[in-house]
């Protein structure tokens, strides 16, 4: 499902033979992504897929493949497998929604068919076909495609990192083609948690762009989710989302923990909607394998983009980044000099000439500011933010203070 180019439908061929070959490729490609998602299957829902041999988890790093392939080898460059739970636990690309579409018998064994959804697309949307799963017993599944023979998805080692990173093959064998399908639950071992990228003023912050709806789990007490309502006087006004967050919503988190395990989400389909004012943008993919069909990323532009960071006065905000802030962790990613925004990250598009540092301000602070609260006289007193962080000590003037709402001499003031 994540492997077929939409611009060239797999089934538009000039002969039955070509159609069968392309159908086979489509099935194998989609099987790759689907097999990973069904281990310990329990109906429709969100799952991770873990290889029983390598213990690595499937990750969808792209939604395209080479639909021109006319051989039995499928283009699996859209998938990788990862061992590190620290990465997997907070990676939205490891979450796949399974939607059951039917039952059957294949090779004398009962099978089930599914439409697999994730990273903004689905098997049915791309190839107009569902994928087969066979229960091998003991909590193990095989994902298959068939054209005369059966072809199974397997996991193989990467030459560069033989344990941490794996590649997928359509020639899976009896040892590497068994997968565990693991339901995602905030109360279980296979939870999803947010990994903070910024620490400021004693709090942890992150952004995310993911293809699933969610609410903070009860275990993540104090977690808050925001969208960007507007930009005002050089400040980024964030407004809290109360209740369920819709899928494909770029957001900002304030997290109670520095670890994903303390920032768990309850992932579920929902019908929630948000105001259209959200100024954040998001990116699903950051990939450059050197192949034309696997090159997709958003290049960061310091003139018109800001990313989550820490302002020079210690406040969290959306700030200008430099090349040194970008890195290439894996071989399939663009080199750092391309300044590619990491996958599943939210970022802010701003007018050219915007401040290099744009502090976060809650909507409540903004609302207090536009009420025009001021202070009389020039008292000698500390100036703090509304959250209690001291930004000036024993001062009689607001000269040089960034625009925003502050407490001075036990009163609110607005600096414009």
List the helices and strands and how they pair.
Elements: H1 16-35, E1 45-51, E2 57-60, E3 79-82, H2 85-88, E4 96-106, E5 109-118, E6 121-122, H3 123-127, E7 131-137, E8 140-147, E9 149-152, E10 154-157, E11 165-169, E12 179-183, E13 192-193, E14 198-200, E15 203-208, E16 214-216, E17 224-232, E18 235-240, E19 251-255, E20 264-267, E21 280-283, E22 287-288, E23 295-296, E24 305-310, E25 316-319, E26 345-349, E27 357-362, H4 363-370, E28 381-385, E29 390-395, E30 404-408, E31 411-415
First-residue to last-residue Cα separation = 51 Å
Low-confidence stretches: 1-39, 67-73, 371-376
* Derived structural class: mainly beta
Into which percent range does the helicity of residues fall? under 10%
How many strand segments? 31
Q: What sort of overall outline do the alpha carbons produce when their principal axes are compared?
A: elongated
Largest sheet: 10 strands, mixed
């Amino acid at each position: 499902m994540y492997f077929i180019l939409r611009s060239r439908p797999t089934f538009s061929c000039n002969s039955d033979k070509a159609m069968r070959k392309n159908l086979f490729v489509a099935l194998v490609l989609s099987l790759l992504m689907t097999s990973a998602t069904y281990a310990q299957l329990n109906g429709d829902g969100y799952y991770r897929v873990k290889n029983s041999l390598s213990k690595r988890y499937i990750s969808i790093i792209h939604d395209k493949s080479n639909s021109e392939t006319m051989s039995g080898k499928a283009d699996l460059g859209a998938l990788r497998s990862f061992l590190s739970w620290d990465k997997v636990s907070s990676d939205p690309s490891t979450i796949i929604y399974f939607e059951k579409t039917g039952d059957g018998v294949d090779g004398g064994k009962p099978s089930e068919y599914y439409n697999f959804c994730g990273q903004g697309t689905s098997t049915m949307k791309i190839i107009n076909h569902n994928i087969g799963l066979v229960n091998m017993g003991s909590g193990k599944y095989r994902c298959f495609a068939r054209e005369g023979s059966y072809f199974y998805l397997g996991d193989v080692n990467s030459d560069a990192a033989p344990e941490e990173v794996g590649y997928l093959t359509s020639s899976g064998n009896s040892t590497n083609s068994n997968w565990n399908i693991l339901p995602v639950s905030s109360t279980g071992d296979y939870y999803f948690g947010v990994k903070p990228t910024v620490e400021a003023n004693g709090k942890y912050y992150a952004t995310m762009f993911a293809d699933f709806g969610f609410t903070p789990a009860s275990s993540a007490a104090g977690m808050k989710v925001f969208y960007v309502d507007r930009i005002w006087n050089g400040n980024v006004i964030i407004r809290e989302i109360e209740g369920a967050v819709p899928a494909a919503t770029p957001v900002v988190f304030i997290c109670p923990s520095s670890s994903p395990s303390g920032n768990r989400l309850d992932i579920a389909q929902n019908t929630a909607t948000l105001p259209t004012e959200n100024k954040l943008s998001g990116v699903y993919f950051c990939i450059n394998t050197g192949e034309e069909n696997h090159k997709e990323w958003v290049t960061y532009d310091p003139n018109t983009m800001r990313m989550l960071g820490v302002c020079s006065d210690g406040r969290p905000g959306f700030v200008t980044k430099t090349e040194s802030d970008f890195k290439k962790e894996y071989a399939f990613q663009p080199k750092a000099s391309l300044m590619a925004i990491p996958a599943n990250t939210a970022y802010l598009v701003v007018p050219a000439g915007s401040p290099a540092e744009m502090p976060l301000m809650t909507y409540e602070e903004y609302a207090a500011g536009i009420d025009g609260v001021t202070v009389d006289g020039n008292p000698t007193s500390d100036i703090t933010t509304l959250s209690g962080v001291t930004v000036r000590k024993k001062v009689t003037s607001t000269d040089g203070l960034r625009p925003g709402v502050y407490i001075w001499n036990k009163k609110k003031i607005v600096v414009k």
